[in-house]
Design brief:
The complex is a heterodimer of chains A (about 400) and B (about 260). With about 400 residues, chain A is an alpha+beta fold. Chain A is built from 13 helices and 11 strands. Chain A has a 9-stranded mixed beta sheet. The longest helix of chain A has about 40 residues. Chain B has about 260 residues and is α/β, with parallel strands linked by helices. In chain B, about 30% of the residues lie in helices and about 25% in strands. In chain B, a hairpin with a 2-residue loop joins strand 4 and strand 5. Chain B is globular. Classes of the chains: A alpha+beta (about 400), B alpha/beta (about 260). Chains A and B meet through helix 1, helix 2 and helix 11 of A and helix 1, helix 2 and helix 3 of B.
């Protein structure tokens, strides 16, 4: 403790910042703005990737069959359904579910406007999702022309959830054919689809009469407990023809994320947006610190004349950078939380503050402030103690 | 004034001057733009001696002060301060030496973001062996010594010009210097405060063996000088006591009174 009191000095960096409240407020607003920009861009990017697999995560599957021509969930190609029969020959496979996956036009029953909706067709008796509540609702799809509507879909699809809970009969058109909403599920939209509906394969094929018979878009495979999905996937690859691709469930999700990450400009755009926030922040902090050093140059020169080494004064500027980083990060974090909630409510995208992103943005803000401080330090070289007499 | 501030300290090695200038030359610019500002200056200042440096504007007084204060690189000649030869010295050596030298500037150069007490404590913070509270107490004592005990928490912009100058003086003295360089320290002070300040400096010199080299045009303070050195065109013209050097007829009224008093 005595060592602390021995070393304790006037908190010059803190006083330099806080005794100029207007300048400090501008600096913090600038840093917070840059931080918010980074939080939002990185949040959108991660939210996009997470949202792109909202439905993927819910599937009850250890392995997934897809057409090798499939690029992403917004452009699923078909493959022969009999491949699932071949898969059943493997000793580790205990069950399969053929799935139809298409984007169809849904007519908003209130406004009569149409909008693309992700339509998933399956046999109502087959396990589709891991969530047992979804499994229980599937029996209503046995009746032709019935659908389960995703109540987390964007509001442009109409007030389906509200009407259904009010006990109203909700009917509309999908792909120009009449369907009735027989229940509600909660899945969530993604960047590829603003809304989702589940129906039976029979109903879906009626909605898409041109679909080739025996063609499906996804094949869900469930394995015996204790099986290694990677080993089984490799074994199936050797047995099956190359008109199907086999993924583990995690690989299936990664496949989708990779599409958005690499095959589109979206990942690049949001990363670039975050980089822009970083650069804007650097410019703001540099301007603030540079003008601060310039304004106090005679005072720094006085300290040098008194015998303070240059390294001490550089430390003052560095501490100013550190303080600005910490003080600017806090409002950025809270504003980010608020804006994420706003985005979730407005877009239903799963954009949440998480530890990784919180730490990443703090590190970026710290780098921004310390880098700017390092550049502003060069100005200290202009402090000439001989000039102050 | 608190007595402990000016308590006598052991004298340095007897007869050893703390400042020794020999054949000092300094110039600005180069080639046809070269302007000689110091020419062959020889000067010694002993511990505890108060030397006033006078002369017309532009004669090189301030440059001489900055050279002795290790604020400039010596170009030609010898400057020895506390035994350290500054000609050829490193930046680190000069910075370390400056910790032993108190400087009082014509412009007070206080840190605007610091209170009077904190400004003075910046001087005391250079003392390596004192704890935080001791340094703060020292700052308060020096502010009391210059009559500003009621202004500890005031920022420079809340102080008058004279008060700022007194804070600057307290800051220089708080570092417990062995050599004090002052550039017109009483210019912004009224006669009573100016007198108190120079008495303080004289007391410091007498009791702590602190040498004082002061640039001044203020004839009211000639009486504190052990020696007055007159400079013209970069050269030391003559030196002696104030009355002899300036002469009664060359002193303004206030200066004459001071010289006679």
């Amino acid at each position: 403790m005595s060592g602390f009191w021995q070393r304790r000095r006037i908190p010059l960096a803190w006083l330099l910042l806080t005794r100029q409240p207007a300048r400090l407020a501008v600096a913090l607003a600038g840093i917070a703005f840059a931080g918010i920009l980074m939080f939002m861009q990185l949040g959108f990017r991660d939210g996009l990737f997470d949202a792109s697999v909202t439905v993927h995560k819910l599937f009850d599957a250890d392995l997934v069959l897809m057409s090798p021509r499939t690029m992403s969930s917004i452009g699923m190609a078909g493959f022969p359904r009999r491949r699932l029969v071949q898969v059943m020959a493997d000793a580790d496979v205990v069950g399969t579910t053929p799935v139809h996956w298409n984007l169809l036009l849904w007519r908003n029953p209130e406004t009569r406007h149409t909008r693309s909706i992700l339509s998933i067709g399956f046999e109502p008796g087959d396990p589709l999702f891991t969530d047992p509540s979804l499994r229980e609702k599937a029996h209503v799809l046995n009746q032709l022309g019935r659908v389960l509507f995703d109540e987390r879909s964007r509001p442009e699809f109409g007030p389906i959830g509200t009407w259904f809970r009010q006990g109203r009969t909700v009917e509309t058109e999908v792909a120009g054919k009449r369907v009735r909403v027989a229940g509600l599920v909660a899945l969530g939209p993604s960047f590829g689809a603003d809304g989702n509906m589940l129906t039976s394969s029979e109903t879906l094929l009626r909605l898409m009469p041109n679909t080739p018979p025996g063609s499906i878009e996804l094949g869900l495979i469930r394995l015996r407990n204790g099986s290694d999905p990677l080993v089984v996937a490799e074994r199936l690859r050797q047995k099956l023809p190359d008109d199907v691709a086999i993924y583990t469930k995690q690989g299936f999700e990664e496949f989708e994320k990779n599409y958005w990450r690499s095959s589109t400009a979206i990942g690049f755009i949001f990363t670039l947006g975050a980089a822009m926030g970083f650069i804007v922040g650097c410019v703001i902090v540099y301007q603030i610190l540079y003008s601060d050093v310039s304004d106090h140059l005679p005072e720094y020169a006085t300290l040098m004349a008194m015998g303070y080494p240059l390294i001490n004064l550089l430390g003052v500027v560095a501490r100013e950078g550190l303080l600005l980083a910490v003080l600017g990060y806090v409002p950025a974090w809270f504003a980010g939380q608020g804006l994420y909630a706003l985005v979730r409510n407005g877009t239903k995208l799963p954009v949440y503050m998480n530890t990784d992103r919180s730490v990443l943005v703090f590190v970026l803000i710290l780098a921004m402030c310390m880098g700017s401080a390092a550049m502003a330090m060069r100005k200290l070289g202009d402090a000439d103690p001989a000039e102050i007499f | 004034m608190p007595s402990n501030l000016l308590a006598p300290t052991p004298r340095s090695a007897a007869g050893e001057p703390c400042v020794q200038l020999q054949g000092l030359n300094h110039w600005y610019g180069s080639g046809s733009n070269r302007r000689q500002v110091i020419q062959g200056v020889d000067l010694s200042i002993n511990p505890g001696e108060v030397v006033l440096l006078t002369g017309p504007s532009g004669c090189g007084k301030t440059t001489l002060l900055t050279l002795v204060g290790a604020l400039r690189q010596v170009m030609a000649g010898s400057v020895r301060v506390f035994g350290l030869e500054l000609n050829g010295s490193t930046r680190g050596e000069r910075q370390q030496l400056r910790r032993s030298i108190g400087m009082i500037f014509q412009g007070h150069n206080l840190l605007r973001c610091l209170s009077a007490e904190q400004n003075v404590q910046m001087g005391a913070d250079l003392l390596p062996d004192l704890g935080y509270r001791a340094r703060r107490d020292l700052a308060r004592q020096w502010l009391r010594a210059v009559g500003l005990e009621d202004h500890l928490g005031k920022l420079p912009h809340d102080l008058s010009g004279g008060q700022k100058q007194r804070v600057a003086i307290a800051r220089a003295l708080a570092a417990q210097p062995r050599l004090l360089l002052a550039d017109e320290p009483t210019a912004a002070l009224d006669s009573r405060t100016g007198r108190e300040v120079v008495d303080l400096l004289k007391g410091l010199a007498r009791n702590q063996d602190c040498a004082v080299l002061m640039v001044t045009h203020d004839p009211r303070i000639l009486d504190i000088a052990d020696r007055v050195v007159r400079m013209e065109d970069g050269q030391l013209m003559d030196s002696g006591h104030g009355e002899r050097l300036w002469g009664a007829d060359r002193l303004p009224d206030t200066g004459r009174e001071a010289a006679e008093g």
